[in-house]
TrEMBL record:
Signal peptide: none
InterPro entries for this protein: Na/ntran_symport (IPR000175), SNS_sf (IPR037272), YocR/YhdH-like (IPR047218)
Protein's cellular compartments: Membrane
TM region positions: 12-30, 42-66, 87-114, 134-158, 170-189, 209-231, 252-274, 308-330, 351-371, 383-401, 421-443
Coiled-coil ranges from the UniProt annotation: none
Name of the protein in question: Sodium-dependent transporter
CDD domains, A to Z: SLC6sbd_Tyt1-Like
Upper taxonomic lineage: Bacteria, Pseudomonadati, Pseudomonadota, Gammaproteobacteria, Vibrionales
Length: 444
């Protein structure tokens, strides 16, 4: 497909908001703080930062570059970078889009819960306490209805395309997210008990440093930057040719990490504020109560102890989570949709309806068999598939894709890249260091 007829993000700001919108999601606002809280706070933070900048950032550049070079959906972009391995490239693309669809199928369920909690806090704010129990109590009907609502929202945005849908909503929602976030963190700091959480988050206790912690931090970094499932490849293909990829990727990684860090600044102190207010956050053995309880029980319990202000703070908190989730879920749906419009020549409308419908169906199956399937899908996709696919993409970029073509692609947005330090380190780094690091962490 000629690059001129292909849709693009209209501005670099728009691209950064969209890519950061994909990266910033439940992984940052929920996953990172809960993992940090249950893995010794500061130590997890440090290992996580190393993982992001030593491992995830170079891979983010690799994924974006191959996408922009291919100027097409993930399948075709991989084929462009691996001309001799067409079958392998197609297979990799297809596996990537299946995995990202599965990720969306569980992501939508969790996002649905958030919508339930948001509606609940909103109604409390207006003094409505009847009939709100259903919204926050685990049941198949609630899970199903809220999940479908969230999927419809995602499909609505993606149906409007790259510039009018994804970019427009990301540039609206992301700044709003930053503002809400800032307000809420500042508020929590004023509460009793917050300092205890802050200490746990910022003062390292090295006894927590274990191989398992490194594996968790790596998984978290990959999930958080949406790596390994063609999201960044697809978004990269909508990036203008004159954009500087290493710089843009660095900005995306910085925003993502900044939000994760701030989420920690908010959630860890909030836990201790909740404890101060008499909410149980640690089990009798001293371990942190599991992660769902933290967001869906502990924090709401804290909001409840704060009366009417609490209902407002709670509503803001959940709104924040929903925004973060939506800008991520649209990036996931875009991957199979871009493949369907370009490979199967479906119209965008039909592709969104068909694929969105299919993912909703899969998600419904997970909801109905929740106890058997939910954990399984999460583990299969995020713990195994994502790092493995990311590794394969890195191998293509490092070993197979022609070095001069990579250089040519990067040069378009950064003419003197060949002389800079980036080009001295990165190709070798992606070729050798990233795979070795990943395998080390895996086998640890
Ligand atoms: N990165 C997002 C988060 O932190 C979630 C996300 C979006 C994602 N696209 C993805 C995760 C692709 C894995 C793969 O919540």
């Amino acid at each position: 497909m000629a690059s001129s007829s292909r849709s693009q993000f209209s501005s670099r700001f728009g691209f950064i908001m969209a890519a950061a919108g994909s990266a910033v999601g439940l992984g940052n606002v929920w996953g990172f703080p809960t993992q940090a809280a249950s893995n010794g706070g500061a130590v997890f933070l440090i290992v996580y930062l190393c993982m992001v900048f030593l491992l995830a950032y170079p891979m983010l550049v690799a994924e974006m570059t191959i996408g922009r070079y291919g100027q097409s959906n993930a399948i075709r972009s991989f084929r462009a970078g691996w001309p001799k391995g067409q079958l392998g490239a197609i297979l990799l693309g297809v596996v990537g889009l299946v995995v990202v669809s599965l990720i969306l199928s569980f992501y939508a369920i969790v996002a649905g819960w958030l919508m339930g909690s948001f509606a609940d806090s909103g109604m409390n704010l207006f003094g409505i306490h009847d009939h709100t129990h259903w919204l926050t109590t685990f049941s198949t009907s609630r899970n199903l209805i809220l999940m479908v609502t969230f999927m419809l929202l995602t499909m609505y945005v993606v149906r409007n395309g790259v510039a009018d849908g994804i970019e427009k909503w990301s540039t609206r929602l992301m700044p709003l997210l930053f503002i809400l976030f800032f307000v809420l963190t500042a508020y929590i700091f004023t509460q009793d008990g917050a300092m205890e959480g802050l200490k746990m988050y910022l003062i390292p206790d090295l006894s927590h440093l274990t191989p398992e912690l490194c594996v968790s931090a790596m998984g978290q970094a990959f999930f958080s930057l949406s790596l390994g499932v063609c999201v960044m490849t697809t978004y990269g293909s909508y990036l203008k040719k004159d954009a500087n990829i290493p710089k843009t990727a660095a900005q995306v990684a910085l925003i993502d990490t900044g939000v994760a860090f701030t989420a920690g600044l908010m959630v860890l102190p909030a836990m201790f504020v909740a404890k101060q207010n008499g909410v149980q956050i640690f089990s009798d053995t001293g371990a942190l109560l599991n992660s769902d309880t933290l967001v869906f029980d502990v924090l709401p319990a804290m909001f409840n102890t704060m009366g009417i202000v609490g209902a407002l703070v709670g509503a803001i908190f959940f709104l924040l989570m929903i925004i973060a989730a939506l800008t991520s879920s649209i990036s996931m749906l875009e991957v199979p949709v871009s493949c369907a419009t370009e490979e199967l020549k479906l119209s965008r409308n039909k592709a969104v309806l068909f694929i969105g419908g299919l993912i909703t169906l899969v998600s419904a199956i997970v909801v109905v068999n929740f106890s058997d399937l939910f954990g399984l899908v999460v583990t299969f996709t995020t713990v195994y598939s994502q790092p493995i696919i990311a590794l394969l993409i890195t191998l293509i970029v490092g070993w197979i894709w022609n070095r001069n073509q990579i250089l040519g692609e990067l040069k378009q947005g950064c003419p003197d890249i060949e002389q800079g330090w980036f080009w001295k380190i990165w190709p070798w780094y992606v070729r050798v260091v990233c795979p070795i690091l990943m395998l080390l962490v895996f086998f640890a």
